[in-house]
Design goal:
The chain is of the alpha/beta class. Strands 19-20-27-28-29-30-32-31 form an eight-stranded mixed beta sheet, covered by helices on one side. The longest helix is centred in the middle third of the chain and has 14 residues, at 341-354. The chain is 15% helix and 34% strand. The chain folds into three domains: 2-127, Immunoglobulins (Immunoglobulin-like); 129-206, Immunoglobulin-like (Sandwich); 222-577, Purple Acid Phosphatase, chain A, domain 2 (4-Layer Sandwich), CATH 3.60.21.10.
């Protein structure tokens, strides 16, 4: 923590607070600087009050303000001259007070060196803790792993805290609150403080079992080990294939809370009720699964943030809903692969395989093929999935060895793409589609990195590119390769199923409709390349309970829900994807 604080201090310019709050600074909602959002208090400890915020698209840095009452006055306590920083720890305050209020504003720097500021965020409150409490009521762990827990009191921790475990055969705990998981099971750890005359408790659950699949729908595709491809035994090899592709599926804490069942499990299937009639018209449907499925690691409903970073982990029961929605395969390469460590990623792969899902993007070993191939009505379609190096894993891959990263993850490089496409074609693929997890969260414009990777992926031999990660719909373009081919590229198809609503557009998405045909000479041609706009509604039915977080087609030809599609949202999506792409009606 000390190193982290030193790093933050380096980003702060001397005694800038007094100067930066001068009246000469331009403060306006029209300044071009975008206000930060999602400010939350994350921890109160002897290191201070720790809080974080979400970084907007247009910002060169931030200013942090503090007050001792909600109405102010607010003092500027720090200037942070980098967009990349999104958290701060404050310990230089009057510890006799009972409440602290923090607000953030961002700034951009003009070519003339002038700083233009956004408006300040609504203040968030940190409160003096009068009743000692554990940092977590429940701690989920893998056996043979360790996690530290704090007991909070006042503006820090009790100095004389004493920890003990009710069952050391399941978990032990040291004097500083470091828990070591020993074997599967549940036990309670206790923290006592004689100086304040209080105690608190936390439950430890080691190696939680995954939920039992419902699997109401049987899979269409099965793996043919002889041919090395996934194939639908009931399909006709007529050389015509309709492939549908969507972006991120994100099972957040709000979804888990809303769709919990009476038996303590979950059923997410109703969210996909209005997707089923659309995917039923496909021969092969693919989605990007942007969550772990590791039961021993905390689900997002257990801990939304770990170390101030999103913890995307969902029950494996979510795959029942994905299948119910008519999806035949998933891609898995994304920036949350490392949220729970190597074991959590291996558990995710195990659950996907348990549901017999074709997948690519993460791997059990270095020897696994870096692609999957589906025989769709006699056309062998290969799928690849990559993570951009610049998107990064939020530092959560720091504990991974170089060998583990190479074996299990799929971070893009041009050389790797050339090798993978070549291997995919040698294995029989006649058409190659690449999913790309790239870009910057909530950025409306495509980045130079996206352009470079799109060109590289096309030059490497991909025939079609589908992008995700920015959490909004971005423009479509045609990429001309060095050998003269034209490769369609959807830079971002948005969040297909997610609760997220940080900026307008976070629930907008595209379902890509790709129709291929093989001619008598074996050449694959695109018959149709179009899209169907979707929006993920919080609730569709009037009672607001029937179909939460449901993607609904914004087209009369495809909408089977009682929700009248919004023309405003429809037009926003059409404008974002651009004139080069064709909407399907």
């Amino acid at each position: 923590m000390l190193d982290s604080l030193k790093k933050k201090i380096k980003n702060i310019i001397g005694s800038a607070p007094q100067e930066s709050c001068a009246k000469k600074d331009a403060v306006s909602s029209d300044s071009g600087a975008e206000m930060p959002y999602g400010t939350k208090i994350s921890k109160i400890s002897r290191d201070g009050v720790e809080f974080y915020w979400k970084k907007p698209e247009r910002a060169n840095g931030y200013e942090v303000f503090r007050a001792y009452s909600a109405g102010g006055p607010y003092e500027c306590i720090a200037r942070i001259d980098t967009r990349k920083c999104g958290d701060y720890t404050d310990n230089d305050f009057d510890h006799a007070v009972k409440s602290l209020f923090y607000s953030i504003r961002s700034y951009i720097t003009t070519d003339a060196g002038e700083k233009l500021f956004s408006e300040r965020t609504e203040p968030v409150e940190a409160e003096f803790i009068s009743d000692m409490r554990p940092e977590r009521k429940v701690t989920y762990m893998y056996s043979d792993s360790t996690r530290k827990i704090l007991a909070s009191y006042g503006w820090g921790e009790p100095e004389d805290a004493v920890w003990s475990s009710c069952d050391p055969s399941i978990a032990t705990v040291t004097d500083d609150g470091t828990i070591t998981a020993v074997s599967a099971g549940t036990c309670t750890i206790r923290c006592t403080s004689k100086s304040i005359g209080q105690e608190c408790f936390s439950e430890v659950i080691v190696d939680r079992e995954p939920t039992v699949p419902i699997m109401p729908e049987s899979e269409r595709f099965h793996y043919d080990e002889t041919a090395g491809v996934w194939k639908n035994p009931d399909s006709e090899a007529n050389g015509k294939a309709v492939i549908m592709m969507v972006g991120d599926l994100m099972c957040g804490s709000g979804q888990m809370r809303k769709q919990a069942t009476a038996d303590g499990s979950w059923d997410f299937s109703s969210s996909f009720e209005y997707v089923r009639p659309v995917t039923a018209q496909s021969d092969f449907a693919v989605a990007n699964l942007e969550t772990l499925l590791a039961s021993p690691w905390p689900y997002m409903i257990d801990e939304v943030y770990i170390d101030n970073k999103n913890n995307c982990n969902a029950p494996s029961r979510y795959l029942d809903a994905v299948r119910y929605g008519g999806f035949d395969a998933v891609t898995l390469s994304n920036n949350h692969n490392c949220d729970g460590g190597v074991r959590a990623l291996m558990d995710t792969i195990e659950q996907v395989e348990r549901y017999e899902y074709p997948y690519t993007g993460v791997f059990r070993s270095e020897d696994d093929p870096r692609f999957m191939i589906a025989d769709v009505n006699g056309i062998k379609v290969g799928f690849l999935a990559y993570m951009s190096q610049k998107t990064s894993f939020n530092g959560k891959d720091a504990g991974w060895s170089a060998k583990e990263k190479k074996a299990h993850l799929h971070v893009y490089s041009y050389e790797k793409a050339c090798r993978d496409v070549r291997s995919c074609r040698e294995a029989g693929a006649e058409y190659v589609i690449s999913y790309m997890h790239w870009g910057v969260k909530n950025f409306r414009n495509i980045t130079d990195d996206q352009r470079t990777l799109a060109q590289g992926m096309a030059d490497a031999g991909a025939d079609f590119i589908v992008g995700s990660n920015p959490h909004i719909v971005q423009v479509y373009d045609d990429i001309t390769t060095k050998d003269g081919r034209v490769v369609p590229c959807y830079y971002s198809v948005g969040n297909f199923q997610a609760k997220m609503k940080q900026i307008p557009g976070n629930r907008d998405s595209l379902l890509v409709y790709l129709e291929l045909q093989k001619d008598e000479n074996g050449k694959i041609e695109i018959v149709e390349n179009s899209y169907i706009p979707f929006y993920c509604y919080n609730n569709v039915e009037e009672q607001m309970e029937e179909h939460p977080w449901a993607p609904v087609p914004l087209s009369r030809d495809y909408n089977t829900s009682p929700k009248k599609p919004s023309r405003k949202i429809h037009d926003r999506i059409v404008q974002a994807v651009g004139e080069k792409a064709k909407e399907r009606h």
